[in-house]
Design a protein that fits this description.
- The protein is elongated.
- The longest helix is centred in the N-terminal third of the chain and has 20 residues.
- The chain has 15 helices and 19 strands.
- α5 runs antiparallel to α12, α7 packs across α9 and α8 packs across α9.
- The model has no long low-confidence stretch (mean pLDDT 94).
- The protein has 2 domains: 160 residues, Rossmann fold; 290 residues, Alpha-Beta Barrel (L-fucose Isomerase, Chain A, domain 3), CATH 3.20.14.
- It is an alpha/beta fold.
Length: 474
């Protein structure tokens, strides 16, 4: 379920440098993008050269890109480039911007240079700053260099984070549980600052939707069959039907209200409505790429959307509690929750069962796979928002109930202090693989401060600028 991102491809030139050389690189760059499978909108129909260099062309390009609904703007400097036209176009479009130019050839026998692309990048970067346009810089390299492919694909992931973040609408099923003051959020502020919208519904509406799908039977039967095939079902048949009906009902309501994530009041009024814990149903939707977050944690839903978007929606994430310290490892911590994790992250066949803290059935128990991970938490208070992020790895530890994994970080004391001192809470999102540089870079476009819990900012920046960086092994 990979994300689809469309780039606006607007190579630029300046008149005093070789126009034929710029046209040549316009074609070479477009060919390389096609070779990499990048979806882009060309400007070869805007003028004879297919290049950005004047107002007349820029106006046509802006109209075309708006019509095509591009997600990001790519400004290759085929020669020096026209910096003010790049800035005007970027300002008007308001999408993430990727700035790059190819390395120049050796001067000819007369000492003449054809393009001076690098020099133009310096100029354009300054003018973009004057226009207050955030941009991503991919270092001056050759088309076949590995940093070109990496830089393009990383930029697509950044665009995906921005696209998802700016179009987020969360189905809020019930208010937060009374005891969870930590998960309160400012709905108006989220809308005003970020266009993050909530669609609140009461629990009885969920109950009615469950009843409707139980009567329809077909979709519920499919989910029951899926559960029996992919999980160990230590649950009564009538309660498994409730799990399946809840899953179908939540997906139906998310589609009805146009939502890309769900936050649910998972206890304890919900049990009076459906008689089960919702964790297994949450896990089923999480597996499909629809984040469902416990305890009506709206910021948690945003966190999971950001995290999966940074992975181009190709990997599933785990919504977890920071729970207890590892009994034997001073930098170890337990990530655990009652059972909402997608089954694809499990290293064993998950079991639908009774959770650790509640008497009702409907939770899941399974340990997640080990390996390198990224941890992400969007949060805020007093009008300031940030994203806590960093690296971890899965390690061995004692068996426990629920969906869980023991992790190790470089310095748990430093991380613990950040979580306690805020603006974060006891919830975090984990995902296998490294999305830290992508989330870090996306922050400049979404107006949120990146907050690395390890002192690795220089390394993250170096990676983003094309250097070969090895992050410290946890």
């Amino acid at each position: 379920m990979g994300a689809k991102i469309k780039l606006g491809y607007a190579p630029t030139r300046r008149a005093i440098f070789s126009a034929p050389a710029a046209v040549e690189y316009r074609k070479l760059t477009a060919d390389r993008l096609r070779e990499l499978g990048i979806d882009f909108v060309d400007i070869d129909d805007v003028n004879e050269e297919g290049l950005l260099f004047d107002d007349a062309g820029r106006i046509k390009i802006a109209e075309k890109f708006k019509k095509e609904k591009i997600d990001g703007l790519f400004l290759p400097h085929a020669n020096f480039g026209t910096e003010y036209e790049c800035a005007r176009l970027a300002k008007e479009l308001g999408v993430p911007v990727l700035l790059w130019g190819p390395r120049d050839e050796r001067p000819d026998e007369n000492g003449m240079r054809l393009r001076d692309s690098q020099c133009g990048l310096f100029a354009t970067g300054k003018v973009l700053r004057r226009f207050r346009v955030p941009f991503t810089y991919m270092n001056n390299c050759n088309l076949e260099d590995p940093e070109f492919e990496r830089g393009i694909k990383d930029f697509l992931a950044v665009c995906n984070v921005v696209k998802v973040f700016k179009s987020t609408r969360i189905l809020q099923i019930g208010p937060r549980p009374f005891d969870f003051w930590s998960t309160m959020c400012n709905e108006g502020e989220l809308l005003e600052k970020f266009n993050i919208q909530l669609s609140p519904i009461p629990l009885p509406e969920l109950g009615d939707e469950i009843k409707k799908w139980k009567e329809e039977k077909t979709e519920v039967s499919k989910v029951i069959a899926y559960c029996r095939e992919n999980m160990i079902c230590k649950i009564e048949d009538n309660l498994l039907e409730n799990v399946a009906a809840l899953k179908v009902a939540m997906k139906s309501l998310a589609e009805k209200y146009g939502c890309n994530a769900i936050a649910i009041q998972c206890w304890n009024a919900l049990q009076d409505v459906i008689g089960i814990m919702p964790c297994a149903a949450n896990a089923l939707l999480n597996e499909e790429g629809i984040p469902v977050i416990c305890e009506t944690d709206i910021h948690g839903a945003v966190s999971q959307l950001i995290t999966e978007a940074a992975a181009m929606n190709e990997r599933r994430a785990m919504f977890a509690d920071w729970t207890v310290r590892h009994p034997d490892n001073d930098n170890g911590e337990l990530l655990q929750h009652c059972g909402p994790w997608p089954i694809s992250v499990a290293q064993e066949k998950p079991t639908i069962c009774v959770p650790v803290a509640f008497p009702q059935n409907g939770a899941i128990s399974a340990q997640a796979k080990h390996g390198p991970m990224s941890l992400v938490r969007f949060d805020g208070d007093e009008g300031e928002y940030s994203i806590l992020l960093g690296h971890a790895k899965g390690i061995d530890g004692p068996w426990t109930k629920g969906t869980y994994v023991w992790i190790e970080v470089n310095n748990l004391k430093r991380l613990e202090a950040k979580v306690v001192e805020g603006p974060y809470i006891h919830h975090v999102v984990a995902i296998h693989g490294d999305v830290v540089p992508i989330v870090y870079e996306a922050c400049k476009y979404i107006g949120v401060k990146p907050d690395l819990y390890d002192p690795i900012e220089d390394k993250v920046k170096a990676y983003l600028h094309g250097e070969d960086v090895v992050f410290d092994e946890v």
